[in-house]
Amino acid sequence: MTKTITLAHGNGGAENNELIKEVFYEAFKNEILEKSEDAAVIQNGELAFSTDSFTVSPLFFNGANIGKLAICGTCNDLAMMGAKPKYLTCSVIIEEGFEVEQLKRIVASMKKELEINEAIVVSGDTKVVPRGAVDKIFINTTGIGEILYKSISSNNISENDLILVNRDIGAHGATIFAAREGMDINSNLKSDCISLYPQVKALIDAGIKITALRDATRGGVSAVLNEWAKQSDICIEVDEEKIPVCDEVRGICEMLGFEATNLANEGTFVLAIPKDDVVKAIEVLHGFTEASNACIIGKVTQQYNKKVILNSSWGTKRFLDTPTGELLPRIC
């Protein structure tokens, strides 16, 4: 590991994993933390607990802003453990000179997203720092949720499962990149940032058996699949042509040499579902406009344990590795 922190250590990929393992896990080691789930399962499996900090730049972008992202991010982590978001805390660090009107817009979007999740903010903290000490505003949210469906775990995926995504991938990362670089794209490209609890609740209500869920934020779908392969000691084989990618995201990837599977998402999640329940799960997801192209993208095998294989439309295979380097800092 390097002697100093680099931007790559925040990428959600290999360097980020190394930092967490060698510094934080080493210091805070315990059986709950070592499960490496999207949210900690506590109180004998009754509650889920998660925290996240948001530094996205720009603060406002097509489809969302830092406030909506701060609520979606934490509530989605709870939902990925089968939990209904209930109580959140909100801490903000604000730069001197920040416009109150912009702060009100951010808070209003947070309020709206809380209503979608039927959750409330019950505690918080506000700090104001001198100009230049922080870039405009940073937000931290911590959430507690009531687990409605138990035993979801990325440590229990087996060959009985198929791998699905709930929608097309990479929209958030592509949107932030276009906004930050001032790219004048005449298209419908916008962040996929939404609250995922309604979709998860629909799956639970339909009686779908769920093995694992994970929202594909930093590091994208590639990071999720590699984490799952390692945690469950399996091989995941993905068919490249089955992965849904919208034309706008595909165009940015082709123009700039990005891999859509590495791009961050904020309303896209990966599912491991037993084969017998897959058809019903897709039918449930297709009931949501945002999940209209939910589909199977892969399967679980034992060909190369702890690895992800990408099968191309040309009949070739290659390993889909955990992202390395910093593709785009301050994505969330």
Keywords for this entry:
332 residues, alpha+beta, seven-stranded mixed sheet, 8 helices, globular
Task: List the SSEs and their pairings.
Elements lengths: L13 H15 L11 E3 L4 E8 L5 E2 L2 E2 H14 L3 E13 L4 H18 L2 E10 L7 E11 L13 E5 L5 H10 L16 H9 L6 E4 L4 H12 L3 E5 L7 H10 L12 E6 L3 H8 L9 E7 L5 E5 L5 E3 L13
Helix pairs in contact: 2-3
Quick summary:
This protein is α+β, with helices and mostly antiparallel strands and 332 residues long. It has helices at 14-28, 66-79, 100-117, 171-180, 197-205, 220-231, 247-256, 278-285, and strands at residues 40-42, 47-54, 60-61, 64-65, 83-95, 120-129, 137-147, 161-165, 212-215, 235-239, 269-274, 295-301, 307-311, 317-319.
The strand count comes to 14
Unreliable stretches, pLDDT < 50, 5 or more residues? none
Structural class: alpha+beta
Q: Main sheet?
A: 7 strands, mixed
The helix tally amounts to 8
Task: Give me the Rg, rounded.
Answer: 19 Å
Q: What is the spatial order of strands in the main beta sheet? A: 9-11-8-12-10-13-14
Please write the string of helix (H) and strand (E) elements: HEEEEHEHEEEHHEHEHEHEEE
Question: What does it look like?
Answer:
It is a single chain. The chain is α+β, with helices and mostly antiparallel strands and 332 residues long. The protein has 8 helices and 14 strands. It has helices at residues 14-28, 66-79, 100-117, 171-180, 197-205, 220-231, 247-256, 278-285, and strands at 40-42, 47-54, 60-61, 64-65, 83-95, 120-129, 137-147, 161-165, 212-215, 235-239, 269-274, 295-301, 307-311, 317-319. A 7-stranded mixed β-sheet has the order 9-11-8-12-10-13-14, with helices on both faces. Strands 1-2-7-5-6 form a 5-stranded mixed β-sheet. Strand 1 and strand 2 (47-54) form a beta hairpin. Helix 2 runs parallel beside helix 3. The longest helix has 18 residues, at 100-117. The protein starts with 13 loop residues before the first helix and ends in a 13-residue tail after the last strand.
